[in-house]
Recover the amino acids of this structure.
């Protein structure tokens, strides 16, 4: 139940009227630049073909009704003027939070009927929550004539997740869902939200980017993400900068020497070096040397594993097994503690590398992972 026409049909069954339209917004996978977004640094995500689809009709009576095809739960009915942050731990907090954030920003959103269905894997680090937020914001922006741009919608969606849901994420996931374009990765400066669409047509290069969903569920609301964010902010404070983005890579050794403890040094080393890795990947892509980004990905994984310490045995096994089988490079992607890894391979080696990873999981006694190609896809859009 994920195509636009199917979602529209189910909407009509639920609400007894046709929707005003159907919109979609994708999940994302991040090529490079992890935990750099809230440090006002650089990231490079690409949108996936997997999307959250929303059939929506406007209401003018202050009622917000929400239903998901993916959750075995009844329709949720709320009042737009009674939405309260941190009061709901269910899936409905994501679209409801967007309505709250729009109203908090002064936009006239008086209510809506929504039916949602998503093909973005949940708990896999592929931004299923951002897809829900962005598709809701995108639909309401159009239906209510709010005039917001893609970055503006992303900021609203981020505020919904930060202040309403209670997850202190940066803006990368929402920007990727709102602003990516087909066949490109998004080079995003998280300080001013300036973007550059970087051509990323791997098939034309004889390459493939595999996503390996370990099926280990991560939960960013459990405090580990917030702890690392606080550690990064403490490092910036000690170093006298507003954000770690302001620490030049060439000054990193001197900066680390000023920090009071190993934990802060590790976090700062990761963020500053990962910002530098984004710059290196951009340089390689601009030079047409796509294969050379592979070792940078693997290097990034080592930093996430050893300095940020957000990996897990399953993610580490994907990387080691893929690299041993001839992959060009691999790393965990997303918030960590489970979720997914990405693997860059020659197209002709994709099957063999996939088999090696699957075999390694069997040998280790881990749950069989899900493996699929990541194809750089379009951001949020109207479907019907």
């Amino acid at each position: 139940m994920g195509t636009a026409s199917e979602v529209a049909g189910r909407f009509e069954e639920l609400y007894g009227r046709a929707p005003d339209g159907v919109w979609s917004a994708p999940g994302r996978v991040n090529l490079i630049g992890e935990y750099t977004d809230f440090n006002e640094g650089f990231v490079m995500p690409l949108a996936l073909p997997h999307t959250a689809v929303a059939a929506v009709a406007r209401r003018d009576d202050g009622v917000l009704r929400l239903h998901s095809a993916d959750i075995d739960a009844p329709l949720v009915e709320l009042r737009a003027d009674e939405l309260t942050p941190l009061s709901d731990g269910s899936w409905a907090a994501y679209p409801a939070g967007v309505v709250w954030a729009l109203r908090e920003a002064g936009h006239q959103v008086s209510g809506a009927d929504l039916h949602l269905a998503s093909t973005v894997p949940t708990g896999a680090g592929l931004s299923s929550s951002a897809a829900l937020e962005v598709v809701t914001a995108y639909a309401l922006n159009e239906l209510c004539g709010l005039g917001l741009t893609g970055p503006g919608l992303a900021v609203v969606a981020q505020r919904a997740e930060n202040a309403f849901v209670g997850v202190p994420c940066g803006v990368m996931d929402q920007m990727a869902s709102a602003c990516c374009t087909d066949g490109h990765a998004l080079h995003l400066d998280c300080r001013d939200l300036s973007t550059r669409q970087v051509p990323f047509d791997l098939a034309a290069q004889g390459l493939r980017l595999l996503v390996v969903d370990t099926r280990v569920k991560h939960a960013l609301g459990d405090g580990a993400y917030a702890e690392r964010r606080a550690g990064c902010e403490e490092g910036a404070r000690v170093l006298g900068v507003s954000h770690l983005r302001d620490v030049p890579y060439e000054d990193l050794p001197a900066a680390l020497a000023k920090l009071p403890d190993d934990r802060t040094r590790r976090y700062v080393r990761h963020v500053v070096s990962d910002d530098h890795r984004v710059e290196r990947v951009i340089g390689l892509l601009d030079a047409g040397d796509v294969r050379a980004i592979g070792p940078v990905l693997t290097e990034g994984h080592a930093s996430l594993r050893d300095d940020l310490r957000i990996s897990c045995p399953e993610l580490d096994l994907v990387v080691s097994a893929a690299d041993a089988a001839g992959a060009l490079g691999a790393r965990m992607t997303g918030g960590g503690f489970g979720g997914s890894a990405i693997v860059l391979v020659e197209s002709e080696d994709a099957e063999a590398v996939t088999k090696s990873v699957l075999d390694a999981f069997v040998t280790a006694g881990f749950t069989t992972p899900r493996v699929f190609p990541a194809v750089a896809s379009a951001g949020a859009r109207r479907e019907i």
Summary: The CA atoms of residues 20 and 57 lie 5 Å apart. The chain has a mean pLDDT of 96. The two ends are 16 Å apart (CA to CA).
